[in-house]
């Protein structure tokens, strides 16, 4: 095997060296024997397989929730829904009645839905993998094929595959598997999300070149650089081994000259809290409350939400927990809310727009739970409103908070109004940042959406990946303008997009003036270490220099230097 490097998208800022194990989940059914098909028998076989699949999925969901987290386990709820999808069930029945065996009928019934999801953008495109997972599970059960046990791989295995579905990735044991790499996929794929949750080195979307890598080859998988190094040198192996050693800092950190920067975590479910605390998080910088509403038949009531928020506050008694109010729409549909079918949902009804309109009752219930938790929880609560684009929207949200507080007063319910803030995710919010900061305690930059809207480059669209870089000059200047507006109006400013979790950008962000950075738990130790190596004055000078750059390449060159 020649010594060379394959490049894809890094999913986790970790690296490891190991031995290649190829995983091939596709099976060729061959041509069906239509002469011996008895439709009632085949339909009964399908029903039996569906019940067996249901039992497997429920068991895997429970195991994943315990080992990885409730947010990641939620994907199996979607799989259970696909298992009972009327369109798929009708397709199987129709194919069987046209003399196809059950396994071939399943393959045909899933074909069109998979193709439809593949043509979508962003996270909706990842639903194609969910469908493949359910399809392959049913076919395996119908054909009696043995399931490859990814939980029983040799120590130091680097798994290579065309793709890894949620049930594949959930089997991986981070104590045995060194990492994985896939032909397809992006940073928002289920495989990438699971890798970050497990702190497992991973590179996705390498392309067809990956298929040329041989079984039992020695490789370095570097989830930070997005590289798979074949036949690595001794020096590269040593670098990978060193990169895997993580020094967790449990106390708050400061720059060399004493500027404290809060380093917090992004979470979606209570089950993640212990894990992010173990990584050294100072608090929660983004609690994505929509995950409490997903994959269920009705919304959580006030008491259930109150319990979730107080649990987070009690986990960080000396820290801050920033809860984002319901951010539904875009790539986060909720069936029971009857969301509109929009041509471009990212530019439609989402975030605060729905909270002030069609989801007003949900919004008020959530605020009641939050204000109660602010008084009862051990930590410091803050509330953040998503996708605010006008001052009018913020004023309406603040008025709703006041109205809810008045109502709780009238009911003699213990409560408190905590710090209030706004996410800066659009160019309009950047331009309105001074007026927004006058009205709230803090601003938090969501770089994923801010980059998407500023650069007109959809998240999840690999064709415009370079434009989705938050170090594009236009995005960087928008970020700097937001920080300046916050501080000029006595508000503190944080960042909760993926940019915050890149230790190579920590000095730049400190130089821009950020008071808080929030990220995936796996990157917290690296960012804390980076903060402690920063000289604030030097960082400010570097940031000013970067803001003067005309191109992304110039900024990246400055950062490298």
Number of helices: 22
State the helicity in percent bands.
Answer: 40-55%
Stretches where pLDDT falls below 50 for ≥5 residues?
A: none
CATH architectural designation of the largest domain: Alpha-Beta Barrel
Give the overall pLDDT as a whole number: 88
**How much strand content do the residues show?**
5-15%
Structural class of the secondary elements? Answer: alpha/beta
Note the main sheet: 8 strands, mixed
Domains (count): 3
CATH level 4 superfamily of the largest domain: Phosphoenolpyruvate-binding domains
Gyration radius from CA atoms, angstroms: 24 Å
Physical arrangement of strands within the biggest beta sheet: 1-8-7-3-4-5-6-2
Topology, number of strands: 17
Distance between the termini: 33 Å
Describe the structure.
The chain is globular. Helix 4 (86-97) crosses helix 5 (102-118), helix 11 (302-315) packs parallel to helix 13 (360-376) and helix 21 (536-547) runs antiparallel to helix 22. The protein has helices at 39-67, 70-73, 75-83, 86-97, 102-118, 127-143, 166-171, 190-198, 234-243, 273-278, 302-315, 352-355, 360-376, 391-410, 427-431, 433-439, 447-455, 473-488, 506-512, 524-532, 536-547, 552-560; strands at 4-7, 9-10, 15-23, 157-161, 177-182, 202-204, 218-222, 227-230, 253-254, 260-267, 284-288, 320-324, 380-385, 419-424, 442-445, 492-495, 516-519. The protein folds into 3 domains: 4-24 and 148-242, 3-Layer(bba) Sandwich (Glucose Oxidase, domain 1), CATH 3.50.30.10; 39-143, Orthogonal Bundle (Enzyme I, Chain A, domain 2), CATH 1.10.274; 262-519, Alpha-Beta Barrel (TIM Barrel), CATH 3.20.20. It is 44% helix and 15% strand. The longest helix is centred in the N-terminal third of the chain and has 29 residues, at 39-67. Residues 7-127 form the Phosphotransferase system enzyme I N-terminal domain. InterPro entries: PEP-util_enz_mobile_dom, PEP-utilizing_PTS_enzyme, PEP_util_C, PEP_util_CS, Phosphohistidine_dom_sf, PTS_EI, PTS_EI-like, PTS_EIN. Residues 246-535 form the PEP-utilising enzyme C-terminal domain.
């Amino acid at each position: 095997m020649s010594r060379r490097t394959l490049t894809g998208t890094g999913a986790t800022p970790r690296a490891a060296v190991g031995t290649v194990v190829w995983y091939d989940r596709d099976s060729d059914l061959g041509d069906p024997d239509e002469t011996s098909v008895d439709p009632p028998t085949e339909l009964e076989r399908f029903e039996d397989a569906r019940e067996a699949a249901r039992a497997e999925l429920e068991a895997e969901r429970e195991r994943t929730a315990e080992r990885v987290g409730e947010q990641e386990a939620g994907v199996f709820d979607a799989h259970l829904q696909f298992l009972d999808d009327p369109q798929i069930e009708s397709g199987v029945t129709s194919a069987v009645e046209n003399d196809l065996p059950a396994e071939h009928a399943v393959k045909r019934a899933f074909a069109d839905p998979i193709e439809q999801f593949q043509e979508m953008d962003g996270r909706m495109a990842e639903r194609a993998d969910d469908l493949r997972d359910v399809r392959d599970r049913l076919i395996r059960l119908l054909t009696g094929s043995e399931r490859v046990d990814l939980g029983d791989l040799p120590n130091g295995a680097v798994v290579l595959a065309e793709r890894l579905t949620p049930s594949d990735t959930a089997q991986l044991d981070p104590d045995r598997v060194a990492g994985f790499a896939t032909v397809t996929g992006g940073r928002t794929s289920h495989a990438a999300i699971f890798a970050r949750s497990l702190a497992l080195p991973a590179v996705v979307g390498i392309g067809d070149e990956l298929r040329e890598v041989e079984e039992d080859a020695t490789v370095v998988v570097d989830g930070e650089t997005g590289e798979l190094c074949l036949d690595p040198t001794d020096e590269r192996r040593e670098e990978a081994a060193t990169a895997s050693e993580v020094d967790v800092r449990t106390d708050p950190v400061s720059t060399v000259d004493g500027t404290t920067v809060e380093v917090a975590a992004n979470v979606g479910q209570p089950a993640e809290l212990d894990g992010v605390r173990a990584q050294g998080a100072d608090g929660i910088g983004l609690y994505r409350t929509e995950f409490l509403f997903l994959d269920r038949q009705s919304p959580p009531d006030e008491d259930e939400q109150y319990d979730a928020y107080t649990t987070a506050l009690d986990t960080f008694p000396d820290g801050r927990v920033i809860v984002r109010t319901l951010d539904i729409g875009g790539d986060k549909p909720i069936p029971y809310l009857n969301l509109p079918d929009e041509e471009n949902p990212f530019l439609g009804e989402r975030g605060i727009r729905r909270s002030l309109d069609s989801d007003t009752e949900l919004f008020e219930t959530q605020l009641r739970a939050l204000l109660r938790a602010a008084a009862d929880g051990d930590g410091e609560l803050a509330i953040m409103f998503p996708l605010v684009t006008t001052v009018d929207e913020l004023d309406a949200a603040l008025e709703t908070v006041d109205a809810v507080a008045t109502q709780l007063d009238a009911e003699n319910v213990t409560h408190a109004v905590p710090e209030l803030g706004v996410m800066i995710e659009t160019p309009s919010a950047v331009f309105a940042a001074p007026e927004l900061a006058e009205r709230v305690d803090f601003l938090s930059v969501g770089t994923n959406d801010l980059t998407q809207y500023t650069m007109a480059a959809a998240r999840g669209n690999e064709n415009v990946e370079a434009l989705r870089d938050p170090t594009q000059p236009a995005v960087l200047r928008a970020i700097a303008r937001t920080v300046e507006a916050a501080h000029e109006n006595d508000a503190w400013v944080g960042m909760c997009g993926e940019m915050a979790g890149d230790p190579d950008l920590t000095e730049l962000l400190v130089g821009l003036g950020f008071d808080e950075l929030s990220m995936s738990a796996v990157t917290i130790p690296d960012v804390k270490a980076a903060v402690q190596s920063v000289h604030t004055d030097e960082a400010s000078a570097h940031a000013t220099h970067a803001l003067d750059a005309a191109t992304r390449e110039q900024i990246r060159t400055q950062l490298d230097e």
